[in-house]
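Page 42, continued from yesterday. The earlier attempt failed because a stray header line got pasted into the input along with the sequence. Redoing it now with the clean sequence only.
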Amino acid sequence: MNIGMALSGGGYRATVFHLGVLSWFAHAGHFDKVKFLSPVSGGSICVGLIYAASGNR
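This time it went through. Structure tokens are written below.
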């Protein structure tokens, strides 16, 4: 199963929210099923943080 996620804007509040949701996905073992991300604003910051923390992978 492939999962696509749309991450909304909203600045740092949205960033923190999205990091929490993606953290839950990782702990539940579903993060590897996320194949598509469509971020804007705060969601883009979140995705940038994840890429930076994972060595740009």
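Notes: The first strand starts at residue 3 and ends at 7.
Reminder to self: strip header lines before submitting.
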